Amino acid sequence: MNIPELLKIEKDKKHFSFEVLPPLKGNGTAFLFSTIDKLKEFDPLFINITNHSSEYVYTELSSGLIERHRIRRRPGSVAIAAAIQNRYHIPVMPHIICSGATADDIEYELLDMQFLGISNLLLLRGDKANEDKRFKAVAGGYNHTTELIDQVNRFNDGYFIDGSQIKHPGQPFSYGVACYPEKHEEAPNLEQDIAWLKRKQDMGAGYAVTQLFYDNKKFYAFVDKARQAGITIPIIPALKPLAKLSQLTVVPKTFHIDYPNELAEEALKCHTDEEARLLGIEWATQQVSDLFSNGYNIVHFFTVSAVDSVREIMKNIL
After folding, report:
1. Structural Rg of the chain based on CA atoms
2. What pLDDT score was predicted for residue 115?
3. Dihedrals phi, psi of 317, to nearest 5 degrees
4. For strand 66-71 and strand 55-60, is the pairing parallel, antiparallel, or unpaired?
5. What is the DSSP letter of 165?
6. How does pLDDT run across 97-125, given as a tens digit for each residue?
């Protein structure tokens, strides 16, 4: 069953979902499964699995020149998604990203997921490489999420990227996209960012998951603007509890978001990781309570370095 259908069927129930990272290359699944084991009792609606973009490494040649190579330090999310779905029988939503992938790579991912019975996707452009000033697609890849959406739509219609027909089409994929309450860092303004979201909806996106935010007022204002622009798909709010002292300064810079004044003032009082973690739990609990009170029936969590905090927040709420 696809995510929009799940949201409609149990619209009067409060839900949560969460994101996990695939293990680093060479590591096992023990840590990943322990994360899910800590949170599965709260009946997650789905589990979102990231797909890390490739990164560059540099090798000095005998000539003295430097050669740049793309590598992946984490496996793709398809196998991990299948392992989670088979072990826990919880719907999974793997990321499919443009970054570091060719159209052929993406087609193989779609085929693998079709064989595995995975039908919910989150389609994303992905981040630019740290070394690059702007996003650069690999040869044969895509620069924009809309190009990725077009490929998935053609696959759903029964066609490969070379135009040949799929002899035995499987269940069509349902997919969502990302959205940004405080706008994407590369967007000239929020209105243009919302216009791109509208285009993705019109192409077939069934829902949108937000970037993390700490100011519910900004989220509500974003949703109001999106609705005025004709966006009707579910918009799932996503949160990341602060979990350690360094995040108080790193998170706004990394994710291009602002803290509301009240949170910023409290953050300045923190001197240890434990104080920051407790503040993160308290603030996120307030955010979730407010979201539920304002009619939202699902909240998504980014769990990296915050699994135990998410567990405490869910205990506070449920």
Report:
1. 20
2. 92
3. -85, -45
4. antiparallel
5. B
6. 998 889 999 999 999 999 999 999 999 99
179-180-185-191 Cα dihedral, nearest 10 degrees? 90
Angle at CA of residue 140, ends 136 and 145, nearest 5°: 60
Q: Give the 3-state secondary structure of residue 308.
A: helix
Pair 221, 294: CB distance under 8 Å: no
* CA–CA dist 297, 237 (Å, integer): 10
* CB burial of residue 196 (10 Å; 0-12, 13-18, 19+): middle
- The C-alpha atoms of residue 246 and residue 248 are separated, in whole angstroms, by 5
Segment 153-181 mean pLDDT: 95
Q: Give the residue-averaged pLDDT of 21-31.
A: 82
Q: Who contacts 27 (Cβ-Cβ below 8 Å, separation ≥6)? A: none
Type and span of the H or E element at 18:
strand 15-20
Q: What is the DSSP string of 40-106?
A: GGG--S-EEE--PPPEEEEEE-TTS-EEEEEE-SS--HHHHHHHHHHHH---EEEEEESTT-BHHHH
User: How large is the average pLDDT for residues 272-292?
Assistant: 97
Distance CA 206, CA 125 (A): 17
